[in-house]
Amino acid sequence: MVSVSDGANQVLQGGTLLVSDVNDNAPTFTNLPNTTTVHENVNFGYNVFVVNAEDRDAAFAGVVTYSISEDTPGPFTINAFTGTVTVSGNLDYETDEVYNIKIIAKDSATNSLSTEEYLTINIVDVQDAGPEFLNPPYDTAIDEGTPVNTVV
Hints:
Blueprint: E1 2-5, E2 10-13, E3 28-29, E4 34-39, E5 47-50, E6 53-54, E7 64-68, E8 76-78, E9 84-87, E10 98-107, E11 114-124
Parallel strand pairs: 4-11
Antiparallel strand pairs: 1-2, 3-6, 5-9, 7-10, 8-9, 10-11
């Protein structure tokens, strides 16, 4: 009820008061920081991890989008809406054994709030190179009639 008075008369009126949610909550990650592994020979587009964040605000202020910070480069991308981290470049254990990817969760309010956390991705080595002779050429002489299976 709303009341208006001029000192002598008072009028009461019923009505509806709408309270708008203020963007006062930053997104909160539910599964970061975290560590995962991926083999160096996976194909582009391979799903590495799905990050998740929640925001307690209502309407657009509660809608979360994801990105990878520009200051943590690597062969990975993230779907802004699903949080799926995928391989987008070549992985090579011999070059980089681990990536620490800074993930940003941002709400969609006009005065947006954001949170950052790390996803550590360990690269697993696979046999991707054949054997090599280290110091060729190898030349030696053996006597005729040397028994089979003799170590030379």
